[in-house]
Amino acid sequence: MSTICAISTPLAAGGISVIRISGEDAFGVAAKVFEPQTCKDVGSMAGYTCAYGRITDAQGKTVDDGVLTVFRAPRSYTGEDVCEISCHGGIYVTKKVLRLCLAAGASLADRGEFTKRAFLSGKLSLTQAEAVMDTISAQGEFALNSANSARQGRLFKQIKSLSDRLVEILGELAAWVDYPEEDLPEVESTALCKSLKDAISALGKIIDNYDRGLVFKSGIDTCIAGKPNVGKSALMNMLLGFDRSIVTDIAGTTRDVIQESVQLGSVTLKLSDTAGIHDTSDTVEQMGVELAKDRLESAMLILAVFDSSQALDEQDRNLLEHIGKLGKKTLIILNKTDLETAADKAELQAFGQVIEISAKNGEGLDEIQSAVEQLFKAGEFDADSDIFANERQKQCAETAHTHLQSALESLETGQTLDAVTVMIDYAAQSLMELTGEKATEAVVNNVFSKFCVGK
Q1: CATH H-level superfamily of 141-214+390-448
Q2: Which residues of the chain does CATH 1.20.120.430 include?
């Protein structure tokens, strides 16, 4: 394969930037742009060593000074010879060093090509490779733990163990059917039935964990709703810890959906501050109200905000009725408790847990955090559970699960072992596609197309 290079750090001003080079001629490319000052030459450097030196252009002019780190095949991230040039983190100088590497014979890496090469060289399974991007995008402790578990091969080992058992069963079935003259022991249906049930149960447990795990891994879609001027934007700012939404005494200040993410205890909330839901003749406000209602439909959690200093009116009750019909997890936020109370708390409690806060004074944050964690049973979820990184993995597992159930049904209804064997074979193929052992080129290319360039 060709020698590739890319900027592996964010393209923004910073302390350092790293340009990664991988391939057969990685050392040759590096030698053309880097002149070491602390060793004889690039080619003589041992793996896992660094050298300080000058980064130069084709005319020998100094572009920058920096550090070269070398990794010799196969003990590198990609399994190939790898060089990494660390230079000063200015955008122009970073791009300049990249252009020098390209001029020296390297090709620009595609999205995820370094990790793809690690997969193709056997350094990573497909599930481990996908976990690399999960590590990069992790926004909370659970997401990071999950990604690290997958990168260490835990999910791969569990799925491979299942697929290996299915392959073993297929071997036993094939031997008994194809070589009757060998007087092999007949496949015992009771034992086969138990093996299928065990596989279905193990796979089903991982599938069931996916949706719950996704909540803690990717965040809870949360809609902050209420009529105008009840303190929705103030609540969002309190949750975030900084002023993101404009807060005024003028009703209808928020007309669009404002989105931010915040870590609240052990869970991440993907917050949407919406326009006040109310009847209005203003065309722009009407559009904002419709957006707010759409967001209520798609949310996993609704924070319904009410003004404790005002008695509930028709608009409040209409909102409560609408939320009640949606059947979503809901917390009733009774804001402005720093003022004299006029709202009927008992009426609100019929629609969900009521939490009294003063967003203006920053009071009630701990109570909201505790309520959200209890609502989603955060304390009951095992942070070390095996969960799928994405829908591709989940679909492969669900397909395998369906085929195994069909195999068990065929066995229990007395169908031929040929029919059972076909279903088990389909299940094994799906699991091997999940791990990447038999993934098509199209599947592999699609996985790595979602990576950033330089990883």
Answers
A1: tRNA modification GTPase MnmE domain 2 (1.20.120.430)
A2: 141-214+390-448
- Give the domain 219-380 fold: Rossmann fold (3.40.50)
Cis-peptide, bond into residue 180, ω within 30° of zero: no
CA distance 123 to 117: 8
Here the tokens at position 103 are: 């001029």
Across the range 352-358, mean pLDDT stands at 91
**Rounded to whole angstroms, how far apart are CA atoms 179 and 165?**
21
Phi, psi at 267, each rounded to 5°? -125, 155
Ranges for all domains in the chain classified under CATH 3.30.1360.120: 4-109
pLDDT given for residue 383 in this prediction: 52
What single DSSP character describes residue 187? P
CATH topology of domain 4-109: Gyrase A; domain 2 (3.30.1360)
3-state SS, residue 358: strand
Describe the strand order of the beta sheet including 107-108 as a list of residue ranges.
34-36, 49-56, 62-71, 82-89, 14-22, 4-7, 107-108
Q: Which residue has the tokens 């006029």?
A: 342
pLDDT at 255 over 60: no
Please name which of 275, 264, 270, 339 lies closest in space to residue 307, comparing C-alpha atoms: 339
The strand pairing partners of 222, in sequence order, are 271, 301
Residue pLDDT, tens place only, 360-393 = 888 999 999 999 888 877 655 555 555 666 778 8
Res. 23: pLDDT tops 80 = yes
Sign of the CA dihedral running 312, 314, 318, 319 = negative
Q: How does DSSP assign 365-394, residue by residue?
A: HHHHHHHHHHHTTGGGS-TT----SSHHHH
The verdict on pTM exceeding 0.85 is no
> What is the distance between the alpha carbons of residues 307 and 329, in angstroms, rounded to a whole number?
20
pLDDT band at 252 (very low <50, low <70, confident <90, very high): very low
Q: How far is Cα 111 from Cα 452, in angstroms, rounded to an integer? A: 5
Cα(372)–Cα(271) distance, rounded to whole angstroms? 13
Higher-confidence residue: 259 or 320? 320
List where CATH 3.40.50.300 sits in the chain: 219-380
Using CA of residue 142, residue 143, residue 144, residue 146, what is the dihedral sign? positive
Q: What residues form DSSP beta bridges with 81? A: none
Angle between helices 126-137 and 113-120 (to 10 degrees): 150
Handedness of CA 222, 227, 229, 231 (dihedral sign): negative
Residue 91 has pLDDT above 90, yes or no: yes
End-to-end CA distance of the chain: 17
